[in-house]
Amino acid sequence: MTTPSWRSKLQHYLNKFEYEKSLRLVPFLVASLAAAGTAIIYSKVFFQAEEGALWLINNTHWSLSLTATLLTIFLSWFIPYRIARQAGGSGIPQMLIANELDPAKDKSLIRSLIGIRVIATKILASLICVLGGGAVGQEGPTLQIASGIFYRIGEKSTHWIQQISSRTFILAGGASGLAAAFNTPLGGIAYALEELSKDTFNNFKTYVLWSVITTGILVQTFMGGYLYLGFPTLESVSITTYINVIGISLLAGAIGSYFGSILYGIAEFRKKFTGAKQLIALNLACGFLFWLGIYFLSRTGVGGGKLLILDLLFNGQWATPSDILVRIAGPLLMSLAGVAGGLFAPSLAIGAAMGSLFSQIFWPHNHHLLIMAGMIAFLTGFMRTPFTAFILIFEMTDRHSALFPMMISAAVAAGISRSFQKHSFYDRIKDDFLDARKINSPESGSPPPT
């Protein structure tokens, strides 16, 4: 065979392999490696800090516990306030806003939302907050962190790989961040479909799928093939069970919707405080009220709430009204204080406590299933992502026998929440910022770090 024929055959195979499209996958895989490594370290340190906060409040004098709580909640607000203000709050609104902006025109604004400086500040401030017992989660920050890492690597890659939108990197980063935070690859894909991309997912599904798969493999390699929660024992599902699942879903979905409305009101209320002295006084007041709750009412209000969920599902514990009160008040006070930390895990903890108390009153026979239904319903009511909520809990627990009750819980909660509030808290924050940008210059807009 002559040399030209060999070259022709080689070119034919290269074209068949679509090497240019395959090459575009490389930066997504590199970003996945970086995001997975960061998420693993961040998650491990976060949960160690949460356990340290519980030890502090249980084994030291009340004055030391109070001082630690006030100081860490203050620093978790003050550090972002002085260094990178968009590092405050949960991180999800910042990611959603960045995903809506024009990468060509709004590069500096996107960096102010999910840039490297913001990521480093977010990690530090959220760890400090939970070290003092703050009722925040690591999942929302992980989404902002991962999307920022993907965006930065995407920026660099566009110099040598053409026709890849920076917005695609933000989307893939957010999906991978959720997958890494909960060890739920399907949950990451579902979130990309429901929240980040909606109707445009088909344009870049390959990149998102590979990013989530790569991140998931790395997380499972280093942290094991564990379930975020585990295998709860479930009783047989009967007609009565379905009736109670619908009941807790209606209740938790409605309260989840109101929870989002209250958070939005808090974001609007904080805009009235413009001076540093006012913000400091507000922060300290919130920190003190929060400490009163976790010290005198319920220690389950400490941290993101994963330990409470584990106690309810595996250690024979039952939630009390005090648990629900503290778990709801904690994230609200954290948002009012302006600290850095997520609302994802605290929302699941609220739903779990509600499901447990509902089960005690109406249907103790299937306690664990109602806890899971409560988590799905509250998260759906709060975030308006029923498919994501259902997939997350399904992947966390791997309970195939509860498949249909979980789906029903998500569907019922989605319906009831829309009747109270059409848009989710995150969508309202995002829309407010984007609407403000139509009136003001891009530099003048600053989304509230909630």
Description of the molecule:
The radius of gyration is 22 Å and the shape is globular. Helix 14 (306-314) runs parallel beside helix 16 (344-362). The protein has two domains: 19-223, Clc chloride channel (Orthogonal Bundle); 239-432, Clc chloride channel. The protein has helices spanning 3-17, 19-23, 26-59, 62-83, 92-100, 107-114, 116-131, 139-157, 166-182, 185-197, 205-223, 239-270, 276-297, 306-314, 321-337, 344-362, 367-383, 386-397, 403-420, 425-439. The longest helix is centred in the N-terminal third of the chain and has 34 residues, at 26-59. The chain contains 20 helices and no strands. It has 450 residues and is an all-alpha fold. Its main location: membrane. This is Chloride channel protein. Keywords: Chloride, Chloride channel, Ion channel, Ion transport, Membrane, Transmembrane, Transmembrane helix, Transport.
The CATH superfamily of the largest domain appears as Clc chloride channel
SSE succession:
HHHHHHHHHHHHHHHHHHHH
Mean pLDDT: 86
CATH secondary-structure class of the largest domain? Mainly Alpha
Distance between the termini: 67 Å
Helix fraction bin = over 70%
Spatial extent as radius of gyration: 22 Å
Short description:
Keywords: Chloride, Chloride channel, Ion channel, Ion transport, Membrane, Transmembrane, Transmembrane helix, Transport. The protein has helices at residues 3-17, 19-23, 26-59, 62-83, 92-100, 107-114, 116-131, 139-157, 166-182, 185-197, 205-223, 239-270, 276-297, 306-314, 321-337, 344-362, 367-383, 386-397, 403-420, 425-439.
